[in-house]
Amino acid sequence: MMIALMLLAATCCYAIGVRAAWRRAGVGRSISARQAAMFGIGIIVTAVALLSPLDAMADDLFSAHMTQHVLLAAVVPPFLVFGAPFTAFIWALPAGRRRRVVAWLHRRRALRAAWLAITAPAIGWFIHLIAMWTWHAPSLYQLALRSEWIHAAEHASFVGTAMLVWWPIAHPRTARRTAYALGIGTLFLTAMQTGVLGALITLSHHLLYPAQGAGAARWGLTAMEDQTLAGLIMWVPGGLIYVAAMSVLFVKWLEPRRVVSRVALAAVVVTASCAQPARSVVPGGDVTRGKQAVEAMGCGACHTIAGVGPAHGEVGPPLTGIARRSLIAGALPNTPENMMRWIEDPPSIEPNTAMPNLGVTPQSARDITAYLYTLR
Length: 376
What we know:
This protein is mainly α and 376 residues long. The chain has 19 helices and 2 strands. It has a two-stranded antiparallel ribbon. The longest helix is centred in the middle third of the chain and has 28 residues, at 176-203. The chain is elongated and about 80 Å long.
């Protein structure tokens, strides 16, 4: 019952956040329909693992229990991560509290540094490895069978640590193609370590988990047959899930190379239009003037901005890719109108911001916004 209530609460909070985001920023903005669908799939698979008859079977059969582990560690995490749950949960907060929470997180540099550390590909992979191998140690595994709370902690650690593996793939700090390449390597190593663990369980000549021996007999299996089947489930189907995920990332990584003709056509178009000023998606804004204003006001002293040099400041967030972000200053939906308001007078929107009022005129704010919306 507790698990069902938790899943229901998470789903309701997510739905409230999506509704709030779409009302403020427009349908599909901030959180896309595809992201919402992926989160929904993650919740459904979690329910299948923990609330379906599979959960009752897992009390008797080690093989059914291992199926739960594969679903929770290999299937659920990517859907949850790509579903952008943190963004939705922040949007679910009342506007005033949302701004305070985002401002509080922005001030916690140590917390941000810790998050960046544990979501680094190698560190996230290692943390997940520790969780998988520790919980499958015979003594701890059988302890989890005797305690509902320890059992819940085991399952939560599988989901949580696997989300660390997927986080840099879904939310890359580098170019997306680089993230895909790193993701393929990380998932390969994850498949290797879970495959080795599955193989050790499959090929063991000793009963590693005798606590479920009596349950296996009720299903017409010996304890060793059940253990061998459990190991095979982790080793083969579990491995194939990672192979499928790596294949998807590989296709994504190859996409720029598969559209050579389109790239060539785009190059011709760009070359033909290079003598013309860049077009603005902001009515009345001039991209060229906006870039000149950014350089003249020294925005690079506080922000990192690709294409503007030197612009490697670390006081504020990097502006590269700002056009794709969902929020401005963690509070406003990312729209041209809100961007202009922010540039003209940041403290009027967020009193605790470190960004000062630089006296930017409305026209300059429009030009700067036009330029920032080219940074994708």
